[in-house]
Amino acid sequence: MTKPESLQQSEGEAFQARVPLEQRRAQRVADPCYFTYSGVSGERVVVGEGSVIDLSTEGFGVDGNREVQPGALLTLCLCLPDEEMPILIEEVRVAWVSGKRFGVQSLAIGHEERKRLTGYVWKLLANDVRKKPTNLFASQIAEAV
């Protein structure tokens, strides 16, 4: 019996199961923000950069340029396109890894930084709703039936 595609591991890649969509605590939006990260992964210091694949107030899916291990604790600096100052997230935990792609969960973020991040995510969600109003209403109707 073969593993489902979501559980297959490429040779040499660290892997941990991704959180199923229905179990995520916050809705994610696609937004290709630039970010930098640093921390300790395994027994080595890692410093990298990359782009965000999806974004929420609780975590991110990212495409980095340095490999990390599941469970690694990193500091992340997120550069939002419409803001001058980046958002510093003091501590994130690597939740899953697939090559240089990985997901992180926010553990420690300052109050002001969280407000900025939440406002940005809500703005993106509002823009998505304006772009696809018929899909939103169709899904609400389907759920009600």
Any key phrases for this structure?
globular, Thrombin, subunit H, 2 helices, disordered N terminus, 23% helix, alpha+beta, 7 strands, 145 residues, six-stranded antiparallel barrel
Can you describe what's shown?
By secondary structure, this protein is an alpha+beta fold. It has a single domain (26-144), classed as predicted glycosyltransferase like domains (Thrombin, subunit H, Beta Barrel), CATH 2.40.10.220. It is built from two helices and seven strands, in the order E-E-E-E-E-E-E-H-H. It has helices spanning 111-131, 133-144; strands at residues 29-30, 34-41, 44-55, 59-64, 73-79, 87-98, 101-109. The chain has a six-stranded antiparallel barrel with strand order 2-3-4-7-6-5. A hairpin with a 7-residue loop joins strand 5 and strand 6. 21% of the residues are buried.
Helices, strands, pairings?
Layout: E1 29-30, E2 34-41, E3 44-55, E4 59-64, E5 73-79, E6 87-98, E7 101-109, H1 111-131, H2 133-144
